[in-house]
Amino acid sequence: MHARVGRRSPGASAQTILIVAGTRPECIKLAPIVHALAGHRELDAIVVNSGQHADAVRRTFGGFGVTCDVTLPAYAGSPNLVSSTRRMEHLLEGVIHHARPAMVLVQGDTLTAFAGARAARAAAVPLIHVEAGLRAPTVTDPFPEEWFRRRIARHTDLHFAPSATACRNLLDEGVTQHAIHHVGNTGIYSLRALLAQEGVLGPAAAVSPHVLVTLHRRENWDNNADIVCNALLALAARHPALRFVLPVHPNPRIATRLRRRLGDHPRFDLVAPMEYRAFVTMAATAALVISDSGGIQEEAPHLGVPLLVPRNCTERPEGVAA
Fold first, then answer.
1. Among 7, 5, 37, 40, which Cα is nearest to 19's?
2. Which carries the bigger pLDDT value, residue 310 or residue 30?
């Protein structure tokens, strides 16, 4: 266990909110909540690193001045979602029983969020779901994210929905009005705070015309990664002035294909995953962003940068409408 640096002393009657994070996007969207809770004497936060992407969580939270109070063993990775969920759920149940929080808070559609929701239900602790109500047309696309979202909703007591569409989705599924709260998008809060910092979009950011590309979702594994590579090579041939920047996800079912197909091309820069500030700078100055990421579907419209989403459908129709 690791204590958060500078953690305040809560009021005598403070209630604890256990916040669970396991991926980089979760950290970006949860950091504003951690900081907001720090301003309330009635509430205290315990931040848990689930171990899903342990190093990425530590680095990303660190960029926001947050250190996890509890760090679980690193997740080894498994194609079996059932066994992975059970392992993480068991570990999180132990944390819940030890911390005895008033509520558990999870964000989004990850394995961590689903395991956290199940652990909260098993421990009979009320659950808050941030970014509730996002829905794609079918439960299998994207998988497992859409399946996670719908399952998490069944365990949730307070649904924090970031859009009117998300609120309607929950109402259509039978969630009662009083359990739904139409709130802001915490990912955009983090983005705005970063953009307000001096030098984020300085002259050094605009080096040359570039396309920023990220791929990580299951529907773009294996052969579908080749389809995207073919399209990128065609785009490069058509626009010789463009360079391409690809922060490569560590999953070998994407990384191997990208490196084999694009690694030797002189205008493709395959780089390690970027820290948040560097990534926002790269995205904000791009000629085009190509990404299957949910968070980037929100960030790119806010930045005013054209975005191409290599997916069949999206749970974020607001970006398309914008």
1. 37
2. 30
Same fold, 15-195 and 203-321: yes
Instruction: Name the active-site residue from 7, 40, 249, 267.
Output: 249
* Annotated catalytic residue, options 40, 59, 218, 267: 218
Where helices occur in 100-144 by DSSP H, the ranges are 111-122
109 is catalytic: yes
Catalytic annotation, pick one of 131, 292, 299, 315: 131
The CATH code belonging to domain 203-321 is 3.40.50.2000
Tell me the domain boundaries of the chain.
15-195, 203-321
Identify whether 145 is a catalytic site residue.
yes
Separation of alpha carbons 235 and 311, rounded Å: 18
Q: Pick from 2, 59, 47: which is nearest to 21 by CA?
A: 47
- pTM score > 0.70 for this model? yes
Q: Which of 24, 155, 159, 216 is catalytic?
A: 216
Catalytic residue check, 302: no
Report the distance separating Cα 97 and Cα 222, nearest Å: 41
The answer, yes or no, to whether the previous bond of 144 is cis (omega within 30 of 0) is yes
To the query of whether residue 172 is one of the catalytic residues in this protein, the response is no
Taking only the tens place, the pLDDT of each residue in 158-203 is 999 999 999 999 999 999 999 999 999 999 999 999 999 877 776 5
216 catalytic per annotation: yes
